[in-house]
Amino acid sequence: MTNQVKPDTNPSCILVIFGAAGDLTKRKLIPALYNLKKAKLLSDNFAVIGVARAEMHDEEFRKRLREDMNQFATEEIETESWNWLAERLHYLSGDFDDDQTYSALKKAIEKIDHERNAQGNRIFYLATAPQYFAPVVEKLGAANLTEEADGQFSRIVIEKPFGSDVDSARQLNQELMRVLGEDQIYRIDHYLGKETVQNIMVFRFGNGIFEPIWNRRYIESVQITAAEKVGVEQRGNYYERAGALRDMVPNHLLQLVTLTAMEPPISFKANAVRDEQAKVLHAIQCPPPDEAARRTVRGQYGGGVIDGQPVPAYRSEPNVAPESSVDTFVALKLLIDNWRWADVPFYLRTGKRLGARDTEISITFKRAPFMLFRDTPVDQLTSNRLVLHIQPDEGVSLRFGAKVPGPILKLGPVDMEFDYEDYFGNVSATGYERLLHDCMLGDATLFQRADQVEAGWAVVAPIQKAWAEASPPDFPNYEAGSWGPKEADELLAADGHKWEETQHVSHSHRH
Ligand code: BG6
């Protein structure tokens, strides 16, 4: 990704945000655009048109977003840069179902394009509820807003959730492709905006020492944890229909799996990388539902204590049914049936209201043979463990065994650590900067192709089927602030493994 040849100018364009009054716009998109401006990565010929139902003038839209920036900016707000962006922010009130919105939008685009010289380039960002994805695209098409005249672009950015199973994802793809070419569609997975996620490929393929041991001969198992302390917050309406499996696995966690497990692509070009990711997804075993159920554990949090504060059970959260059987935790075992990974279990777990906020990939290597230590006080050798810390700490650590000083032979595990912040300083970002900029440049490497999204859903399909057929467990089955239901431990214990405690990189060099 880093060595890719990029055009040296920042493309002129108009970014149209559908759902401009929503959370994503104020929390991520506007702060990200502001950071891009500060990094000199926006063209002067750039403008934003926010579309939403609420009535508002440009001035009010700007004023509101400026206030939101006090809360969500990741950088100190500097008047000159903000004013630069603010004067490029426009607002159009309209219903997404109403044809008139699109004729008004067309006029607004023409006018602003003329003022700003955006050269006919546009990006439509669908920060809306998912039921609007297909209708908005259809109406954009009908208004001739998706056509790309010579040398111009018209692209659509789509947020998750992209469908809720294989069939709905396929249907959405078909609906989009009635209007758009695949190269106009940018399906976002915000995990790919994270520096440490992008670093996985650089780490694996930009260094000579890891790739030769990155396979079933040396690796015993892989664990991927995405643990959150937060509960469902104000998203009960959405989450009741999603649950942890749909919300996190086919998208974010499978991104981490594919980047960890893929073969080296022949270049950083979008299709080269995405081909390799797709191959991993297709190689993941899809067992029959009863076996899938045995390899999966679902949980739902009860009340508990987090950071010393009592927190309610999932069933007592706003907009959640009092008898809800929705999962807020899932742990599962995947097997990848290819030459590199056959028989190496990939254990995945994610959940809300867990003991810590930690996302990491932990790779456990096979132990050294014991023979040499038979007649010593040592009774067990340490497995080497490499951890890619994704968040909140960003870094890499490697555990190995070392001799504890003294006359008696004793081994102790030690950790060698690399901390991003120590080496590169604190780069504050929303995670959307790179994604927005890549979309302007037409680089889809960090976006999902249609087949990848469908293949991701196919991986969880047997689990969805098994859960739909079985009665749900007796929820709640884990306490808020714990590490999930005990069955998650049993899942690994059955293979002679256990969940590694998530670690924090110690910022030792920082002070
Ligand atoms: C979102 C999910 O896609 O990712 C949320 O819908 C989840 O439920 C979030 O909290 C996690 O993202 P991050 O970047 O905070 O790890």
Written overview of the protein:
The protein has 511 residues and is of the alpha/beta class. Helix content is 35%, strand content 20%. The chain has helices spanning 23-38, 58-72, 79-86, 99-116, 133-142, 166-177, 195-205, 236-261, 270-283, 289-294, 420-424, 433-441, 450-469, 486-493; strands spanning 13-18, 46-52, 89-93, 122-126, 154-158, 185-187, 219-227, 296-299, 301-306, 309-311, 329-334, 346-351, 358-365, 385-391, 395-403, 411-419, 478-480. The strands form three sheets. Strands 8-11-12-7-13-14-15-16 form an eight-stranded mixed β-sheet, with helices on both faces. Strands 3-2-1-4-5-6 form a six-stranded parallel β-sheet. Strand 4 (122-126), helix 5 and strand 5 (154-158) form a beta-alpha-beta unit. Helix 9 packs parallel to helix 13 (450-469). The longest helix has 26 residues, at 236-261. The radius of gyration is 24 Å and the shape is globular. Residues 1-5 have low confidence and may be disordered. The structure holds 6-O-phosphono-beta-D-glucopyranose (BG6). 6-O-phosphono-beta-D-glucopyranose binds next to loops. 6-O-phosphono-beta-D-glucopyranose (BG6) binds next to loops.
Structure described in brief:
The chain has 14 helices and 17 strands.
Give the terminus-to-terminus CA distance.
32 Å
Largest sheet: 8 strands, mixed
β-strand percent reads 15-25%
Q: Which outline best applies?
A: globular
Low-confidence stretches: 1-5
Topology:
Blueprint: E1 13-18, H1 23-38, E2 46-52, H2 58-72, H3 79-86, E3 89-93, H4 99-116, E4 122-126, H5 133-142, E5 154-158, H6 166-177, E6 185-187, H7 195-205, E7 219-227, H8 236-261, H9 270-283, H10 289-294, E8 296-299, E9 301-306, E10 309-311, E11 329-334, E12 346-351, E13 358-365, E14 385-391, E15 395-403, E16 411-419, H11 420-424, H12 433-441, H13 450-469, E17 478-480, H14 486-493
Helix pairs in contact: 1-2, 1-3, 6-13, 8-9, 8-13, 9-13
